[in-house]
Amino acid sequence: MHLCVVGAGVVGLTTGLELQRQFRNASVTILADRFEQDTCSDVAAGLFRPGTSFAGPTEEITRKWISDAYRYWDEIRKTADAAEAGVAQLSGYIFSSIDPGIVRNHYIEQIVPVYRAATEQELTLCPGEWKYGSFFTTVLAECRLFQPWATKRFLANGGRILTQKVESFQDLASSTKYDVVVNCTGMGAKKLCSDYKLVPIRGQVIKVKAPWVKTAFYADYDTYIIPGFQGVTLGGCRNFDSFNTLPCKYDSGAIRERCEKLLPSLKGAPVIREAVGLRPHRDPVRVEVELMGSESGGRNLKVVHNYGHGGYGVTTAPGTAIYAAQLVGDVLKSNSKL
To answer: Under CATH, which number does the domain 2-334 receive?
Structure first.
């Protein structure tokens, strides 16, 4: 049995590993033209905190994706591989002066070990007139470490990784070697699938050297400070339908100003790098089966799509990977046309 994953970001890598786990006798290949530091996943801070607007096809499936993903990350955290994989436990605060709903999260309040209202004293930890707040403990997965670790593990399991830009699924349909293809191309799916529901939400971050920061902070206006293994991530912005992949000096200035106002000790923290990523946003996230006919009249190509995670790809990738692999199993078992 030959299975193929297109895309090598965090969604593609976790899907490749999950296919190896569920189909131990299968040959699994990952095809991609961008890897590790060239992927959108590399820009992410990687804190497990899905947005409350994140949505799969149903509420039940969405919650399962999120709980499965948290379990996946937390299990790595408990192993000897945690440091190499870039996975750790992290606690943080979210503050707002606008609305109490902003500091709540119905998806993770019952999943993470701690999610509670901030005390009156905690609301004074950062400068500002904060009216509402929550404290939570979750996990962090830093993709600059996780992706190389996952790649090494995938290859050690017998997987193959080929550098190839897939311009059309018809190109793969003409090959008889793949029984099922899993599409994990993120923003690439906009062109590959002619999917107009897929929209880039541009994000820009600044990675700074600030080893004294041990706690994450979120605040109004998309402000966040997230410590990681290789620096502290300062953010952010959400530019809807923007394809600009270059850092913007105006965004940089606004991010520094907001973050330094929230945590004044960051003033003067040296910049490690600035990074931009185009989050592949789709409502709902697309994890489903599609049977594609061959233009040449050859065999049909069975495709399982797994893309459109927006800014929550790192958070939810392991959950959608499990679901996508189960769909692959359904396809393999089915003798009828889909």
So the answer is: 3.40.50.720
